[in-house]
Amino acid sequence: MAYISYWFLSPGLFLAILGKLKGQDRTRPTPDFDWRAATVDVAIPARDEENSIALALASLFRQDFPTRKVTVIDDGSSDRTAEVVRRYGQLSGHPVELVAHQEPAGKTPSIRERCQASDADALLILDADTVLTDANYVSRSIEELFKNAGTASVCGEVTPLTRRCRRMLAQADPVVSAVQAEFGLAAEGRPSRLQALLEYFTVIYRSTLYVYLQRFVYDGQMKLFGSRLSPIGCAVAYRNNRLRECFDFAGPRMGDNLSNSEDIFIGHFFAWKGYRNVQVMGVRCASIEPPVGRLPAQLYLWSSSFLQATHYFRDLPLSPFKKLWNRARGLLGARQKRPPSKDDRRRIQEQYRAPWGETYTKRFGRHIGLLDLASMIEKITYPLILFFLMIFNPKLALFTRPTRERGGDPRA
User: Fold this and answer.
1) Domain segments of the chain: what residues?
2) Residue 124 and residue 113: Cα distance in Å, rounded?
3) In what order do the strands lie in the sheet with 40-46?
4) What H or E segment, with its residue span, contains residue 78?
5) What does the alpha-carbon distance between residue 315 and residue 321 come to, in Å, rounded to a whole number?
6) How many whole angstroms separate alpha carbon 283 and alpha carbon 246?
7) How does 182-218 read in b/e, with b if 16+ C-beta sit within 10 Å?
8) Assigned superfamily of 34-187+223-289
9) pLDDT at 301
């Protein structure tokens, strides 16, 4: 008997389908800034990344868009991350600034320090275990970042970085090969059968999940709302002034404690302000995936960060109710402040145009708030429903129904 699972159905999926049917906003942007003239600084937070940091740097210097300054922040590493960075800079001839923390401070303080110290137009955050597989990753990201005035962050697609890919990339780059040989990093032993099997399942699971989410769910939601709720944090380009605006907002309220995942907090802040988090299809980065045993902890990290962000920016998930309330007040004849008319809005044409500022969000809400509410409902109710069914009706917990196979008995 064959089965079809119902667990893929969700409010977020229905919104993605609506976006696919609606299509992208066809407004032709008229930016007032030439993205080719943008200055780009790069920050690479790293902690105990001696095995991968050279690959990340090599992929960055292969890009077809020039970066002004590359800074690696060694966050209290207990291995030779700093030595590998220095040696790579010497052998490659590329200038790499190294900032070393004596004690681990976390990724958020590292990003904040680089953001506040930089006067660049854009700041690219690249994780030390991530490589930019496409040579035009930075150029496409910067082009998209400055194409529309309301865009605050841009990321590409992410794929798993396998052990085999890391080995092939290292062999193809003579500088990386030399660095790895000098530090004894190239002699990475073959994994045990169990470890290889777990890595295989992790890559298969992640690869399938990423294709489904990025090419269908996120793409549909992007077409519907013009934005994601948060960027992919392993390789993301920010408008530096707007990232600084986020840290200025968070500083007196929560310091550097931007939830359990800073990119989710930053993305929600941008959505709260009326800015956009854009994902560019067709340019990819690859990131080392955690072992399958760490997946539950990572899922908890992401889910808890999302719920924390919805708490800090509760005006977003409340947006549908704000719209209903404003409509009800209008029907009852109450005087209310209207959204800005077209004549009052910005003269520069852009896709998914929306007023900026949290005042508008608090008063009228945001369209993307519907996605925030739907995602919050999913993250809270789905585990509870599954747990309840596993206890009282394990068969129904699979949420499946039998399908009639060709030539078979449907009653089987």
Assistant:
1) 34-187+223-289
2) 13
3) 97-101, 69-75, 40-46, 122-126, 235-239, 151-160, 276-287, 130-132
4) none
5) 10
6) 26
7) ebebbeeeeeeeeeeeebeebbeebeeebeebbeebb
8) Spore Coat Polysaccharide Biosynthesis Protein SpsA; Chain A (3.90.550.10)
9) 81
pLDDT value for 188: 58
SS3 track for 124-145: EEECCCEEECCCCHHHHHHHHH
**The pair of three-digit structure tokens given for residue 397, joined into one six-digit string:** 């917990």
DSSP 327-369: HHHHHTT---PPPPPGGGS-SS--TT----SHHHHHHH--TTH
> What's at 103, amino acid-wise?
E
Scanning the structure block, which residue is given the tokens 């509410």?
Answer: 373
pLDDT on residue 388: 77
Residues contacting residue 242 through CB under 8 Å, at least 6 positions apart: 152, 153, 270, 273, 275
Separation CA 13–CA 9 (nearest Å): 6
* Structure token pair of residue 403: 């399908």
Q: How far is the C-alpha of 4 from the C-alpha of 321, rounded, in Å?
A: 35
- pLDDT tens sequence across 258-287: 888 899 999 999 999 999 999 999 999 999
Q: What was the pLDDT predicted at 29?
A: 83
Q: Which of the residues in the chain have pLDDT under 50?
A: 1-6, 342-344, 400, 402-412
In terms of Cα–Cα distance, which of 313, 235, 222 is closest to 270? 313
Q: Tell me the whole-structure pTM to 2 decimals.
A: 0.88
Residue with tokens 């404690």: 257
Bridge-based pairing of strands 97-101 and 122-126 is: unpaired
Q: Bridge partners of 101? A: 75
Please report which residue ranges of 93-192 form alpha helices under DSSP H.
107-117, 137-145, 163-172, 174-182
Asked if 284 and 215 count as a contact pair (C-beta separation under 8 A), the reply is no
